[in-house]
Write a structure and sequence with these properties.
single chain; about 500 residues; alpha+beta; Phosphatase 2c, domain 1; 2 domains; six-stranded antiparallel beta sheet; five-stranded antiparallel beta sheet; 12 helices; about 30% helix; metal ion binding; Protein serine/threonine phosphatase 2C; hydrolase
Length: about 500
């Protein structure tokens, strides 16, 4: 008779059984593999620390019922006052929502990520903050840096999936590499007052960055032989939060990840390969496949609260938001005061004057497709991760990085979308749809359903909606009235169009 772990799990099994089954099954595979079976040990990437896709919150003890500690005898006043709970971000529907659709395509190349990233907080306390607040130790949720990202793959989902699974780890490990003290401090080569240890760290960072550029020049050549990268250590890239290392960490992380991806090199933070281990996208295979097809755009958002007592979505909290952007995915804020859309990103396309100037030596690669859309080589984007065959021409993973201070309740929500959404809906239409829904989760689902209903191209569509401090006032100004009639007309027109198609 088979034991429960020897049979396959089915839909009738509970989540608890499935989790125990998978854990036990992995152990059995490892044990059998050691005895010489064809079953192999789990690859190294399964043994890495999983992404922290939850946050912790301190709640009043009376808000949790029943309180299991009541059975253990008399409690202190501290125990009764607060209780720390873990909240999965994707289950917190009043704080975050995500929805994705493959459209009319047989596959979905979009991916997204949301969670808490392990880097030092980079937001400074507001000028009018009480001194005790500025000096107070950060609580877990107050010290958390939240991470949201959308990744739109093309030519397959290999690159977008790689970004989803690994970009946050590259950022975390680069932050540790650049900040051995784990303290975000302003660093400038001209600052003679810096301690000698910090000056040494600064020199180490400069060497790492020079080595990375040298690797790009020697491996790819072309565009990379003349390009100069501003890693954000000095000058205008030193942001107001007092942490010039954040732009440098993001710039280095994406360029390093991109080089590792197109050459199938092992990430610097992984241990050496084990003899006999099967080559994977993470382990690297220099003697086998050296490049991967396709590429991906990327837009990520980092949010850091400025005071330790409240999360970034609290109406009285001031936070710093950093945008790191490649390609044509979009990030949009909705202003609380008037309900208008405030875009955080601009597309990296061949028609962009900035991109045309950057790639002016390769004007022969600019062309138009059959629909009249301008392209660079065969790509609609001039910046992306992957696309190895176009790297020599200048298709780069150099991100646009910007910083914005979110004052208390200044913005209602944040939306991240792939071009399957932005190609159908304008920024204001997206914001107005969100205003009409009760939760970010419902809003994200409504946007993808609307795109499926009125869109003609049937592209993959992914939406992330993130609650901010002004969420409760999001519809006070117009309640989505600004584009409501337009959206009603588009629905009617789509219904007539598809109705005629069915009749014919």
């Amino acid at each position: 008779m088979m034991t429960p772990y020897q049979r396959a799990w089915g839909l009738r099994d509970s989540y608890s059984f499935i989790s125990r089954y998978l854990s036990r099954r992995q152990t059995l595979c490892a044990e059998v593999g050691l005895r010489g079976s064809r079953l192999q040990k789990p690859p190294i990437y399964q043994q890495r620390r999983w992404f922290r896709d939850y946050f912790t919150a301190v709640l009043p003890g009376s808000s949790l019922h029943p309180d299991p500690q009541l059975r253990k005898g008399k409690l202190s006043s501290t125990d009764r006052e607060t209780t720390t709970v873990r909240i999965p971000l994707r289950s917190a529907k009043h704080h975050f929502g995500v929805s994705t659709s493959r459209g009319t395509r047989p596959y979905n190349e979009d991916h997204s990520q949301a969670g808490v990233i392990d880097i030092p907080p980079f937001s400074s306390p507001p000028e009018n903050a009480p001194k005790e607040d500025a000096a107070a130790p950060m609580s877990d949720v107050g010290a958390s840096v939240f991470y949201y990202g959308v990744f739109d793959g093309h030519g397959g989902d290999t690159a977008s999936l790689y970004l989803k699974d690994n970009l946050h780890t590259y950022i975390e490990q680069t932050s540790r590499l650049f900040n051995p003290t784990s303290t975000p401090v302003p660093i400038s080569p001209t600052n003679a007052s810096l301690p000698e240890a910090l000056k040494a760290h600064h020199k180490d960072r400069q060497k790492l960055q020079k080595d990375l550029l040298h690797d790009w020049k020697s491996t790819v050549g072309g565009y990379w032989r003349r390009v100069k990268i501003d890693f954000g250590l000095t000058g205008s890239k030193c942001n107001s939060s007092g942490s010039p290392t954040i732009p440098s960490v993001l710039m280095y992380s994406l360029l390093k990840l991109d080089l590792d991806f197109i050459t199938n090199s092992r990430p610097f933070y992984l241990p050496p390969t084990v003899e006999g281990e099967e080559p994977t996208l993470l382990s690297g295979d220099p003697k086998g496949v050296t490049t991967f097809k396709g590429g991906s755009t990327s837009t990520i958002i980092l949010i850091s609260p400025s005071t330790p007592h409240h999360p970034y979505w609290h109406p009285e909290q001031t936070s710093t938001l950093i945008t790191c952007h490649l390609g044509d995915t979009r990030a949009i804020l909705c202003r609380t005061s008037d309900g208008t859309a405030h875009p955080l990103t601009l597309p990296h396309s061949p028609s962009s004057p900035t991109e045309s100037a950057r790639l002016r030596r390769y004007t022969h690669a600019f062309n138009h497709d059959s629909f009249g859309e301008e392209r660079f080589g065969f790509l609609a984007n001039t910046r992306s991760v992957g696309d190895a065959s176009q790297k020599r021409l200048g298709v780069s993973a150099e991100p646009d990085i910007s910083s914005l201070v979110l004052h208390p309740s200044e913005y209602s929500f944040l939306v991240l979308v792939t071009d399957g959404v932005s190609g159908v809906l304008g920024d204001q239409e997206i914001c107005d749809i969100v205003k009409e829904e009760d939760t970010p989760e419902k809003a994200a689902r409504e946007i993808t359903e609307f795109v499926e209903e009125v869109g003609e191209m049937g592209d993959n569509a992914t939406v992330l909606v993130v609650r901010l401090g002004g969420w409760e006032k999001r519809g006070a100004e117009d309640g989505g009235e600004r584009t409501r009639r337009l959206r009603m007309w588009r629905r009617e027109e789509a219904g007539e169009r598809y109705g005629r198609g069915r009749m014919n």
